[in-house]
Amino acid sequence: MAFDGTVTRERVRINLLGEFAFELPGGDRIGWRAGKARSLFGLLLVNRGIVVGKEQLREQLWPDIDHPSTSLKVAVHGVRKVLDAHFGADRDFLRVEYRDFGYVMDAGLDVVVDCHELERCTLAAREAAVHGRRESAMELYRQAAALYAGEFFCGESDDWVTEQRHWLRLTALGALDALAESAMDTGDLIEAAAACRRILAVDSANEAAFRRLMLIHARRGELQQAEHWYSLCARRLHEQFELGPDHHTRALRRRVLSGEFTPESRHPVQHGTAGRTLRIVHAGSTNRMGSIA
Fold first, then answer.
1. Percentage with pLDDT > 70 across the chain
2. pTM for the whole thing?
């Protein structure tokens, strides 16, 4: 795409979650094939506005080479060449500058990065929840969950990518967990189930999500479906970790099969009790497999 001088006046979105792409005003998208130049761009963008030392960049991008010599300069040149080609050399954003024995990405205020927005939304959601603004918190969590379009920097395997990928994955799972918990508390079983399904798409052996799905179907009197989710949970835990469901999940299964949660039950469990069953591991914690519950 030829530079037409308009992108400096409108927002440029950069997607690092899922498929890497620049989204330009008007809907045009620009991709960038994997390589050291793209890796350097991502590393500097994640640390936008912060000078990253040359030695740190070499260690992150060429960990197996003792003296990568001119590799860093070549990668910097590659980044600038790509950005110049798409946005023009006289742009006032997305500029890689040499400063204080390192490089810094001057992204500009009109550049929106999806992973930064994900973190911003979750932080604002937690703040809203602390101050009792539940609806605002849930809307922010929905925005955060919508931003998680896939793993961070797909196709890259450097250590810094793996670390960032793990952090953003946990952040997204925390947002989804908060949505699922809130929906269960308010009795919105459809939204709760949708959030649980999204959790399992990210973390396929998440026991808390399986427990919520078991309870959702139990409340609808669909005990066969509840048992289906238990069986799927047991199979995935065995396949991935050679473990079985924990005692919380097994106990919930016994209660479900006894009919304790069915609509016609004479002594239905109140929301508070059900909530305690499902909040064995809170958002932001890790369960025994290291995943958000």
1. 85
2. 0.84
